Amino acid sequence: MMALLFALLLFLGAVQFANAQDGNWTSVTNQRSVSDIESTGDVLICATNGGVLVFDPFQQQFVGSFTNINGLSSNQPAEVIVDHDGNWWLGMEQGALNSYRADDQSWEVFRDFERLTIHDMELRGDSLFVALDIGVSVFLLGKKEAKETYKKLGNIPVEVDAWDTLVDWPFIYVATDHGLSVADLRQVNLKAPQSWQNFTGLNGLVSNKVLALGTHAGNIFVGTDRGVQKFTD
User: Fold this and answer.
1) How many CB atoms are closer than 10 A to CB 226?
2) Number of neighbouring beta carbons within 10 Å of residue 24
3) Are 137 and 117 in contact (CB under 8 A)?
4) What is the CA radius of gyration of the chain?
5) Sheet of 145-150, strands arranged across
6) 3-state class of 118 per DSSP?
7) pLDDT at position 73, please?
8) Looking at residue 232, what is its pLDDT?
């Protein structure tokens, strides 16, 4: 019996090895934890801890899945956004940008932020504002390259985590552990610290640890670790 079992294991191993040699690999991932959702057309694009799921809310079923086997650079997308042409942009936890072209259904990888951590992405025109663990960077969709990075957001330490970004023209708001940083995008040099204004507990924040930003009815809302506040200019 033991000899038969051993022979069976050898046979299964040989089959698996043959499949691997033929390139018949697959990724088995856990996609239950969703970090971000974006809608496009009639479907929802879900960034999960095991790749990307595409969900059709009308059919009430998943209609697509992407992992590192069929297009993604890795299986840990943190953020997803859809541009004006219907292309998907995914920010991976390891810093790579993955782009899915809607016209020919192909993937492209950009490694401008490799070895960095992407926390959030915000689209304004042709500019993708990427919140990183060292500040905020601008990625130009047309040129497909990073233009510049803002590492000193006013009178706060250099290269801090930018947890969230919000563009409400002409201003950009950045959430940090040291308060809220705000700048006018019409300025010439946002890399200069003096181009940024900081709001902390001294200006009314209940906590300097700002984690999320949002807009509603023309108002800016700031989410901290101690509650939500409405920003008043």
Assistant:
1) 11
2) 9
3) no
4) 22
5) 118-124, 127-132, 135-140, 145-150
6) strand
7) 92
8) 80
* Angle CA 125–131–135, to nearest 5: 120
> How far is residue 221 CA from its own chain's centroid?
20
Residue 100, token pair as written in the block: 């899915």
Q: How confident is the model at residue 26 (pLDDT cuts 50, 70, 90)?
A: confident
pLDDT, residue 179, reads 97
Residue 213 to residue 217: CA distance in whole angstroms: 14
* Tens of pLDDT, residues 111-166: 999 899 999 999 999 999 999 999 999 999 999 999 999 999 999 999 999 999 99
SS3 of 22-66: the string is: CCCCCCCCCCCCEEEEEEECCEEEEEECCEEEEEECCCCEEEEEE
At which residue do the structure tokens 């995008």 appear?
Answer: 185
- 62-66's contacts with Cβ under 8 Å and 24+ in sequence apart are 65/31, 66/100, 66/107
Q: Which residue has the higher pLDDT, 119 or 102?
A: 119
Sheet with 34-40, edge to edge strand ranges: 34-40, 43-48, 51-56, 61-66
